[in-house]
Amino acid sequence: MSRSGYSPHTPAEIREMLDVIGAGNIADLFATIPPGLGAGSFDLPEGMSEFEMLDRMEALAARDRRDMVSFIGGGCYEHLIPAVVDHLAGRAEFSTAYTPYQPECSQGTLQALYEYQTAICRLTGMEASNASLYDGGTALAEAALMALRITGRKKLVVDGSVNPFWRRIVRTYLASLDAELVEIAPAHGVLDRDAAFACLDDRVAGVMVQNPNFFGSIEDFSDLASAARRHGALLVSAVYPVSLGLVKSPGSMGADIALGDGQCLGNPAAFGGPSFGFMAVRKEHIRNLPGRIVGETVDREGKRGFVLTLQAREQHIRRQRATSNICSNQSLCALRGLVFLAALGKDGVAELAGLNRDKAEYAKGVLAAVRGVEVMNNAPTFNEFTLRLPMEADAAVERLLGKGMAAGMPLARHYAGMENCIVVTVTEKRSRRQIDRLAAALEEILWS
Amino acid sequence: MELIFEKSVPGRRAVRLPMSDVPRAGDLPDSLSRTEAPGLPEVSELEVVRHFTELSRRNFSVDTTFYPLGSCTMKYNPKALEEAVRPFARSHPLLPFLPSGERFVQGSLGLIHELTRLLAEITGMDEFSCQPLAGAHGEMAGMMMIAAYHRSRDDRRRYVVVPDSSHGTNPATAAMVGYEVVTVPTAPYGDMDLDAFRKAMNPEVAAVMMTCPNTLGLFNPHVAEICDIAHRNGALVYCDGANLNAVLGKVRPGDIGFDAIHVNLHKTFATPHGGGGPGSGPVGVKKHLAAFLPSPRVERRADGSYVIGEGGEESIGRLANFFGNFGILARAYAYITMLGREGLIEVSERAVLNANYVMARLKEWYDLPFAGPCMHECVFSASRQMKQEIHAIDIAKFLIDRGFHPPTVYFPLVVREALMIEPTETESRATLDSFIDAMIEAAKLAGTDPDSLRRAPRTTPVTRLDETRAAREIRVCHQGG
């Protein structure tokens, strides 16, 4: 009998099947493996029931502090998730299917991804989206490679106020390639425009910015987009989708590639994944997009249907000449994003963005009122902002952790000279009371 | 069926948000503000529910249908895995990067560390990183480490060798890491041609990438020799671990001589495929590559606590936002925990039994280009049916009408009209028999009524779709309401 519970075979069936095959026993089926190659060891624990397993998982998870009041974001945000997201994206007809290679029996996934692409285009103001990438950081790296590919140039410029983890991923992707990456040191929490314009020349493939950036500042990059275009370079803009309910879209700023992380759209923090990356471009760049793209077409009777399209870009057709090696993406997380956007709808997304900004502005006010604390951003912010404390941020954050609050992300490890700075994130999930408690606790560790 | 955007009615609304408990902030300056709200659907909650429920019914999936999509390992995904991950939903990945923050996420960090140890034991490797977000991402990590290894020895190498039966991701990955690809043909017995391989090897080859067992479902008896030849040329050998589910407890790539491997958790370890992802592709290496693993890493201190290690100078660096697709790692960990040693061995034994059974019963009806016992999948050719001008795609569409997801077609590229069948261990003999009957019916119809195959599918919401038109008149974003 089956020991695991997931194989249905009875001993009698196994015997009959072996007879059909013409094999004496199961071991005969592995006879092509040379005798010398057998596993040297396979020292694993004994199995257990699902009930014992779930007890063990709960015990493990209990070692995480699950009631921490969190003011950290940095690419992973705690937002409300409507109940319909779990219920609909959790349907096994979606979750236990795979890449829709056979369109006639995968119209559910295909139409959903087409709707997802449409939603991403409308949110970002771009013309063509793919069907998702892994996450925000790898999407930025893919955008960097795409800019190199489109322009045939070898130099990339990145604003130092782009998420430092994401910049690190770009460096990882570029390490073995013949390409140069220039980082522009940020000035007061925004792009140093003089420095950026100074390094734009006809060798630059793309300029990469983030909006809002890692410090939380929002900027209008329309001038940078035009300058880049004059030099034949692309403007690559990472964006935070929730902010786009309020903030000017990358499309209307003139960006060539917009990308970002979709975790904030209906996906739990889950210790950082799975999330999804999105990427949308101006139409002229569509054949350079990495990953799956769903397109509309008709069937033999003229009825509308959806298929994977422009597959000649992809690894399974083009092999070493593909636009990327990506195969599996983060489809189910993208579906969660779509259900989230449909459930909130046009007004809901704008309202959610407003709620985030209202809470963050309130927090900014009460925290900046604490003696010695000042706001560092030289620009408006969305739901994150940077504070300079009158003491080392690491020490302050450590003491506040002891009070059950993750007060913000210290910047010392990412930026020289910012040892006293933290980035504070305030989403709609934080209550006025929690914000007031944070301000009181900060006051207490600073001055009593 | 209408798009959700076509169901939109101005002013309609599904989810209501909480009331604000803070004053309204002043407006953003005009230069930063959106002038028009994004054109998202305006629908009620019931409309959202009906829409996506109706869409879900237009999918074949493992829970509804046999899904023998070769190379993809569409086995049953135990429901307990979905429950196993819930308690971790709120854990924030930046918490361990705060000063002394690691102590608040010992559960999540511990799970990742334990999973790396289990995967190392299963594959015979020394160290693992769970950061790669899919199989192809794991391959990329592996090839970046190999490139960094050669660089660290001041050894400039240009080429990566792959067999022509390889997954497309292998050559695509090699190119992304800056290598030129050399392709070795498949010999008549189905493995990489050993003589051609020897000729392809030279001191400029950085690595050989091989799937083991290979994409034809065969275990290459010369695999140890291939590793040996590569090593003698100073090249390293990368194992595409997509087919690890065939050999659990039977062989370990690390014992054979492979230097690096990725494991597709969504295949071998039963996590749901999600309509195309998320997957997860942890990458494992032998000691000589360990210093190059992606950072950050989860390390275990002598006192049993877990900390973040940033990795040394030689690490290839960060490869993903955080620690990988943690939710998938947790499911795979839960699966290994439930099955245990004996259960995992059984996975491979029953997967191989099922594939050989399908092969034995279909081989008189379809051509088998590479005969001999297979591992977890078998690859037929519709070359016989081609004489009636019936193609693999026609057989695939007919199977849809019989209620089965088709096998993988036209891959591997080395088989003309390929039909690649991977039944997996979770299917019963009765299910296999009805699938086999449908395949035999298709083979018969190819002779008696080929048009009935060309007309298929007839039972789906749409008939065959015009893919050429989709690529010519590109419509990837809905216009209008």
Q: Briefly, what is this?
A:
The complex is a heterodimer of chains A (about 450) and B (about 475). By secondary structure, chain A is of the alpha/beta class.
CATH architecture of the largest domain in chain A: 3-Layer(aba) Sandwich
- Helical fraction of chain B equals 25-40%
Number of strands of chain A: 15
Kindly name the structural category of chain A: alpha/beta
Give an overview of the whole structure.
The complex is a heterodimer of chains A (448) and B (481). Chain A is α/β, with parallel strands linked by helices and 448 residues long. Chain A folds into three domains: 1-38, no CATH class; 69-78 and 348-447, Aspartate Aminotransferase, domain 1, CATH 3.90.1150.10; 83-340, 3-Layer(aba) Sandwich (Aspartate Aminotransferase, domain 2), CATH 3.40.640.10. Chain A is 38% helix and 14% strand. Chain A is built from 15 helices and 15 strands. Chain A has a seven-stranded mixed beta sheet with strand order 2-8-7-6-5-3-4, with helices on both faces. A four-stranded antiparallel beta sheet of chain A has the order 11-12-15-14, covered by helices on one side. The longest helix of chain A has 38 residues, at 331-368. Chain B has 481 residues and is α/β, with parallel strands linked by helices. Chain B has 16 helices and twelve strands. In chain B, the strands form three sheets. Chain B has a seven-stranded mixed beta sheet, sandwiched between helices. In chain B, helix 2 runs antiparallel to helix 11 and helix 4 crosses helix 5. Chain B is globular and about 75 Å long. The mean pLDDT of chain B is 97. The chains are: A alpha/beta (448), B alpha/beta (481). At the A-B interface, helix 1, helix 2, helix 3, helix 4 and helix 5 of A face helix 1, helix 2, helix 3, helix 4 and helix 5 of B.
